[in-house]
Write a structure and sequence with these properties.
The complex is a heterodimer of chains A (263) and B (319).
Chain A lengths: L1 E6 L1 E3 L21 E3 L1 H17 L3 E7 L5 H10 L3 E5 L9 H12 L6 E5 L10 H9 L3 E11 L2 E7 L4 E7 L2 E5 L11 H7 L4 E4 L8 H4 L6 E7 L8 E2 L5 H16 L3
Parallel strand pairs in A: 1-4, 1-6, 4-5, 5-11, 6-10, 7-10
Antiparallel strand pairs in A: 2-3, 7-8, 8-9
Helix pairs in contact in A: 2-5, 3-4
Chain B lengths: L4 E4 L2 E2 L2 E2 L1 H17 L3 E7 L3 H4 L9 E6 L8 H15 L3 E5 L2 H14 L2 E12 L2 E8 L4 E7 L4 E5 L14 E4 L9 E7 L12 E5 L9 H10 L2 E4 L1 H5 L20 E5 L5 H7 L4 E6 L6 H4 L2 E4 L2 H11 L4
Parallel strand pairs in B: 1-4, 1-6, 4-5, 5-11, 6-10, 7-10, 13-14, 13-15, 15-16, 16-17
Antiparallel strand pairs in B: 2-3, 7-8, 8-9
The chains are: A alpha/beta (263), B alpha/beta (319).
Chain lengths: 263, 319
């Protein structure tokens, strides 16, 4: 069983995000970078598939700059076998569909039975990449999976709907995306972090995938950020006075009705 | 040549989702600005009778694909049908709701047609040839204005943000004969959720954090029930196993934009604020007067939530 995990390096969710001078991007100098939390679930699930079936290979595939090797190494330290990073100067802040095209091109060179991806990356929150990769590869995508089981060449998944879940079955290969609750990702132990340094991690350019900047570079982007801003500041919080809980509650309800107009 | 606006609706449990009316209304607004027509797409089984009501939200034309094979959502069946509709109609803009279903459907369509797509938008504007979407990034820590170019321009609207407005139009029904494709994914079982109301569509959300101290969210359930709202939770409450993952509000959970958000026993981690900062009115209830949550709230009560929340329910009185 060959499992490929799609992974993105993102700013730590606890970090303060700042905007650069011309308002077109974020400041990246002092950021701490992590593996996208939904992709951590994907790595863990890939490892569990390999463990359950008693063999196979878990390859981690990412598109990103040089610093993203750290995120791929983290996945290798968790237990993945090999890493591939697509790093090319033409891929500065790639459009999500361009990222999906690059990943799909790379997946033509890596054997896979199952692709696992995070349901979304918590930086641009675009949700686009996994389902677009599946579309480019002409394989089914099963999104927001909370449980999966592989039997022979078939997979059965329970996945989130708007409300509730559905159980679906399909023939491999498929792409699945992760939902919280799927698993609890393991921590990389110190010995495994040391071991991961020796695991194969290959960096490839677009040319190595047979792609050109004219096909996936930023010039091809159909969406472009015009400006970034902070969400509007709220007015100062009104603290509700009162001696007892009931006094405060009565005042709050009055204000919500008369002032805020939300009741 | 490109023509008009297309709004895609979602029909489930015998009715249109609330967000579908929002999508149709926003489509009407854009169509008026461009002086063009609004087509509305309805896909499902047994949907023909309900389709007529969409004219009240401004549909010039309602394209109905009514087939038993479309009873349950299946992206293998829905995508080619929509793709064909786009080929024939050549709309300039296609709108969806940013629902679980349509995130997948619209993505496949965008990939197929190499179209620009703006996900989970909170505002749309026209600027020359471009559609300019306002959307949050970094889990709501930033707001981006994103220009979508090319044809069609696809936008998914965050539920509960756009107004649903009634304006009577012709709403001429056009039934399209469709032959749903074979699907590669077979549905074995559907397990309906326990929640009566979807968090992302609720007008009121009452959430609990670490201050709940355990899995008993009874006081929050009671207040939410009284207000016709839904109950949410922070990541720490979910990680403790007190609430299901589906209830999590935050950067790694759901992003909600209710009219009223009541944060109970929530300290105000940036990760959580990211998921609820877009609410119209935020009330925070916490024993700690220095809790960061008060910096993001409109109204604050310092007190024990197990006393304050029932008191608020009482103060609302019978209705």
């Amino acid at each position: 069983m060959n499992v490929v995990v799609l992974l993105k390096q993102v700013p730590d969710t606890e970090s303060l995000i700042e905007i650069n001078a011309d308002g077109s991007d974020i400041k990246t100098d002092n950021l701490k970078w992590i593996v996208n939390p939904y992709d951590e679930l994907a790595v863990e699930e890939g490892l569990r598939v390999r463990e359950r079936l008693g063999g196979g290979k878990v390859t981690v595939l990412s598109v990103g700059p040089e610093r993203a090797t750290a995120a791929v190494r983290t996945a290798l330290a968790m237990g993945a076998d090999e890493g591939v990073l697509i790093n090319d100067p033409a891929l500065v802040r790639p459009d999500p569909l361009a990222t999906a095209k690059v990943l799909a091109a790379a997946l033509k060179t890596i054997p896979f039975d199952l692709i696992i991806a995070g349901q979304r990356a918590v930086d641009d929150d675009s949700y686009l990449v996994p389902a677009a990769v599946a579309e480019y590869l002409s394989i089914p995508a099963i999104c927001m999976v909370v449980r999966q089981e592989i039997t022979g060449s078939k997979i059965q998944c329970e996945h989130s709907l708007q409300d509730g879940t559905a159980v679906v079955a399909a023939d491999l290969p498929v792409l699945i995306t992760t939902q919280r609750g799927l698993n609890q990702p393991r921590y990389a132990s110190l010995p495994n972090i040391m071991k991961a340094k020796k695991k194969p991690l290959e960096t490839r350019s677009l040319a190595a995938l047979g792609l050109e900047a004219a096909q996936v570079g930023s010039g091809t982007a159909k969406t472009r950020i015009r400006s970034l801003a902070f969400p509007p500041q709220r007015k100062v919080c009104k603290m509700i006075p009162g001696e007892t809980a009931d006094e405060k509650a009565v005042q709050l309800v009055q204000m919500l009705r008369a002032e805020a107009g939300v009741l | 040549m490109t023509n008009g606006i297309l709004a895609v609706t979602e029909f489930s449990d015998e009715r249109f989702r609330k967000s579908s009316y929002e999508v149709v209304s926003e489509g009407r607004r854009l169509a008026d600005q461009l002086n063009t027509t609004l087509g509305v797409v309805v896909l499902g089984s047994g949907v023909l009778a309900a389709a007529g009501e969409l004219k009240r939200y401004g549909a010039d034309r309602v394209l109905v694909c009514d087939d038993p094979g479309l009873a349950d959502f299946d992206s293998d069946r829905f995508t080619p049908i929509l793709d064909d509709i786009l080929t024939v109609r050549q709309p300039r803009i296609v709108l969806f709701s940013a629902s679980v279903r349509d995130k997948q459907l619209a993505t496949r369509l965008a990939a197929r047609r190499d179209a620009g797509l703006a996900m989970d938008c909170t505002g749309l504007a026209l600027d020359g040839e471009a559609l300019v979407a306002t959307r949050s990034m970094y889990g709501g820590k930033l707001v981006a204005r994103v220009a979508v170019a090319g044809t069609p321009q696809i936008a998914l609207l965050r539920p509960n943000v756009f107004a649903a407005c009634t304006v009577e139009k012709a709403g001429e029904i056009e039934r399209l004969e469709v032959t749903p494709a074979e699907s590669r994914v077979r549905r074995v079982e559907t397990k309906p959720g326990a929640a009566k109301l979807d968090l992302t569509e609720a007008d009121v959300v009452v959430s609990g954090g670490r201050g709940m101290g355990g899995p008993d969210f009874g006081v929050l359930e009671a207040l939410a029930g009284r207000l016709g709202g839904a109950v949410g939770a922070t990541r720490s409450a979910v990680d403790e196993g007190w609430r299901p993952h589906a209830d999590q509000v935050g950067q790694t959970g759901k992003v909600v934009s209710p009219k009223l958000y009541v944060a109970c026993g929530i300290s105000g981690a940036i990760q959580h604020i990211a998921g609820m900062g877009g609410s119209s009115c935020i009330v925070a209830i916490n024993t700690d007067p220095d809790a960061p949550i008060f910096r993001y709230a409109d109204y604050g009560i310092v007190g024990n939530l197990f006393e304050v929340v029932p008191a608020v329910a009482r103060a609302l009185g019978g209705r």
